[in-house]
Write a structure and sequence with these properties.
about 280 residues, alpha+beta, disordered C terminus
């Protein structure tokens, strides 16, 4: 099988094709999506990808996310070579979120299995996070961080040491516990956590099934959208994107030091000439 590693410039160009397909599906089915996280920052600060960023992020409120997943599952063959992958339709899939993949590419993760993922866009569902009580957010923030990190440990092919000996002992213990329980155990915990507070009655929402910390946003942030340019394509973003980016990144228009301007997600992508290994059974 012939394959070659994809440069970050090619990765951006081809990821844009994946994003366009997502937008097409959403527009044709009245599904509301928003560019999110580093991709939203890129749209505002660079009018496209952050030059050193190696992924693309989209968020959907839970009702729209569920409709998007159903559409992709019901039109799986028609969507090829694109495929929505998640833990419910892909064996050994390692995340709580879904990824919309171009299967003409092959991912090789540095320290874990890839479950057949290709070039991708992350799709984050935003679930209810209660009504702003301190203990609600503390509870979700703590357990989301713990379950996500334990899922990461469970998915590692082998233990990765750190320089701090005391911290290393703790990590070894957590790694052993995580490997014993398996990633599905923690992903199920995240799913249960995401259903703790009803979406309809929650004032706040967030990406509970994957991530760390206590990022939560008023649901009203996502009641209105606007369009921004992203690599020449008009994309949906929250109208109050300035407030969102300030919460996430502070002074988001300031560039990070040059030493931090590098790919950070721990994988390589290859363009595969023979895609038959990824086709439907």
């Amino acid at each position: 099988m012939n394959q070659r590693e994809v440069s970050i410039k090619e990765m951006h160009r081809c990821t844009l094709t994946v994003l366009k397909k997502i937008i097409e599906i959403c527009d044709e089915n009245s599904i509301l999506y928003f560019l999110a996280y580093g991709s939203l920052l890129g749209a505002v600060r660079h009018k496209g990808f952050i030059p050193w960023d190696d992924d693309c992020d989209v968020l959907m409120l839970r009702p729209d996310y569920d409709r998007f997943v159903r559409f992709c599952d019901n039109h799986r063959k028609e969507l090829l070579p694109f495929r929505l992958m998640n833990r419910f339709n892909t064996p050994n899939y390692p995340f709580g979120i879904s990824r919309f993949c171009d299967t003409r590419f092959k991912m090789v993760r540095d320290e874990a299995e890839s479950a057949g993922m290709g070039l991708f866009v992350d799709i984050y569902p935003y679930d209810g996070m209660g009504n702003g009580k301190f203990l609600e957010h503390l509870y979700i923030g703590y357990f989301r961080t713990y379950y996500t990190r334990m899922t990461n440990y469970a998915n590692l092919n082998s233990f990765v040491s750190s320089r701090n000996k005391i911290f290393n002992l703790l990590r070894r213990l957590l790694y052993a516990i995580a490997k014993k329980n398996g990633s599905d155990y923690y992903l199920n915990k995240l799913e249960k956590l995401a259903n703790r507070y009803p979406y309809i009655s929650s004032k706040y929402v967030g990406a509970i099934i994957w991530g760390t910390g206590d990022y939560h946003f008023e649901k009203t942030f996502f009641e209105e959208s606007t369009l921004l340019e992203f690599e020449g394509v008009k994309v949906n973003v929250p109208r109050r994107y300035h407030e969102l980016l300030t919460i996430c990144y502070g002074n988001y228009m300031r560039l990070p030091p040059e030493s931090e301007r590098q790919q950070s997600h721990g994988y390589k992508l290859y363009r595969v000439d023979d895609i038959s290994i990824f086709s439907e059974d």
